[in-house]
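User: Sequence in, structure out. Go.
Assistant: Echoing your sequence, followed by the structure tokens.
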Amino acid sequence: MDEYQVWMLLAVQFMGAAIFFAATAFLIWVAFRVSKSINESGGNLLSKVIGTVFGLGVVWPGYNIANFTDLLNKNASYTLSELKKSGVEISAGAERFVSDNGDTLPEYSFFTDPIGAIWWLSVLLIILVGIWGPKNS
């Protein structure tokens, strides 16, 4: 494997993540609409529980894909650092990428980005407050 292949593999992986995020953005909109609909209709307990489960089902994978993209970067960085250790010359951009993302074998972390976690928590709260909060007039 050479540097070009590492970059191409990372690009392909990010295309998949981008498609997944686009679908998640659409589902966030649907969850907001479901939340608003339940709030406006008064919603019975069953509809509130189903809306809550749907909202969690949207936020959970969305948050995880954000953490997964960080893992993709760190894995590419590790691969580039291993290439360099094996004697393959890597570009200055690759050197910078490795210095920014680390050169150790990455592991998935649930708390990768605190700002992202706060954003996803706010999305979840918007959904849940709409479902369980006071009815809007």
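User: And one key feature?
Assistant: DSSP finds four helices and no strands in the chain.
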